[in-house]
Write a structure and sequence with these properties.
Distance between the termini: 31 Å
Shape: globular
Strand content: 15-25%
Order of helices and strands: EHEHEHEHEEH
Length: 163
């Protein structure tokens, strides 16, 4: 099984109270990040069976723009899952992933530090081993279902994508 992790792209600033607002949308910079990422990922013959996504606007917009830029099938399932939400823990994201182990590939779109911590857990580390920047993308290959373990097969950071 291939597991892809995608952190949402750059979004509007937090409000004056500093609280994280789930309605924050992507910025023009975020749109550009997704176009650049999709351009690179398309050359890798990317395909996916299911997209799991945080319900936060910036994550959903990231998933939708990535889907569109890659010209993925219109019937590709996209499921919003609170276990990938802003306040989610790595354990929550892992539980969401476990629901899709029958798929050959799944894309999880969410937030930090959840995705980095999930990657760390899947790679067998106690904590986050890598850090996903905004619009960062990781490819893992599942090697064990019990315990859930994976190998790192790719890691794209926005700096890798700049032309």
């Amino acid at each position: 099984m291939r597991i892809y992790l995608l952190r949402h792209a750059s979004a509007e600033a937090r409000g004056p109270d500093g609280q994280d607002d789930p309605a924050r949308a992507l910025t023009p910079k975020g749109h550009k990040q997704i176009r650049e990422l999709a351009s690179t990922v398309a050359r890798l013959k990317f395909s996916v069976d299911h997209i799991l996504c945080s319900p936060a606007t910036r994550a959903l917009e990231t998933a939708q723009r990535f889907h569109k830029a890659l010209k993925l099938p219109s019937k590709l399932p996209l499921t919003l899952d609170d276990r990938l939400g802003i306040e989610a823990e790595a354990e929550d994201a892992e539980a969401a992933l476990r629901d899709y182990l029958d798929q050959s590939s799944v894309l999880l779109v969410g937030h930090e530090p959840t995705l980095s911590r999930l990657a760390g857990r899947l790679l067998g580390f106690e904590d986050a081993w890598l850090r996903l920047k905004k619009a960062g993308f990781v490819e893992l290959r599942l090697v064990s279902k019990d315990p859930l373990r994976a190998e790192l097969h790719g890691w794209l950071r926005p700096a890798h994508l700049r032309s």
